[in-house]
Amino acid sequence: MRLILLGPPGAGKGTQAQILVKKLNIPQLSTGDMLRAAVKAETEIGKKAKAVMDAGELVSDAIVNAIVAERIDQPDCAAGFILDGYPRTLVQADAVEAMLAERGLALDAVIELVVDDRALVGRIAKRADEARASGQPVRKDDNPEVFEERLREYYKKTAPLTGYYYAKGLLQYVDGMASIDEVTRQIENILDKR
Ligand code: AMP
């Protein structure tokens, strides 16, 4: 199963991906998590990505495409994976399609978590509060100003992917404003019908 979760920052892609990892027994490939790990480890990629991420902008397509291309060749991706936060541009969408085609593979589904933007700022603030309460580091880009920029980037560069995948007959929607369990149920419904 090769699945893409689409939706703006704070839509719940990461939460659902983590639940699906357990149910489907395939890994979550979050480019955000991979980039944060690179920043922490101060790798060359991390050094290039840090300022861009802190500003809420998108890291270059070349960097993220290379990270994903390497990751999907790992043995744990053999049975599939859940892409969370990737692709985020049309260039990345073309790249993932080419990567999969080269390996004789294809996407099974693209699921958009449809949310009300006005709720997102609140969700991000909650995520920052929860991190603080549990003693975890708070993401630098989980603050209202940077979040606004992340949302702008989403609408400029990522939202066109819904049309791209709709045209390919791959796009499905779930109600991202529903409870976590209900969103999972809707995703499972879609996957069961395939
Ligand atoms: P996320 O954890 O998915 O919200 O990603 C955090 C930040 O990492 C984003 O705001 C971007 O700066 C960067 N990032 C993550 N995934 C991508 C991607 N597919 N393309 C470009 N930048 C990305």
Task: Write up what this structure looks like.
- The structure is a single chain.
- It contains nine helices and five strands.
- With 194 residues, it is of the alpha/beta class.
- It has a five-stranded parallel beta sheet, with helices on both faces.
- The longest helix is centred in the middle third of the chain and has 17 residues.
- Adenosine monophosphate binds next to α2 and α3.
- The site of adenosine monophosphate has 17 residues, from α2 and α3.
Put the structure in a nutshell.
The protein has 194 residues and is α/β, with parallel strands linked by helices.
Biggest sheet, open or closed, and with what strands and sense?
Answer: 5 strands, parallel
Number of strands: 5
The geometry reads as globular
Uncertain regions: pLDDT < 50 for 5+ in a row? none
Can you list the strand order of the major beta sheet? Answer: 2-3-1-4-5
What layout of secondary structure does this protein have?
Blueprint (H helix, E strand, L loop, with lengths): L1 E5 L6 H12 L3 E3 H10 L3 H11 L6 H11 L9 E4 L5 H13 L6 E6 L2 H17 L10 H15 L1 H8 L3 E5 L4 H14 L1
Helix pairs in contact: 2-3, 4-5
The structure holds adenosine monophosphate.
Task: Note the main attributes of this structure.
194 residues; binds adenosine monophosphate
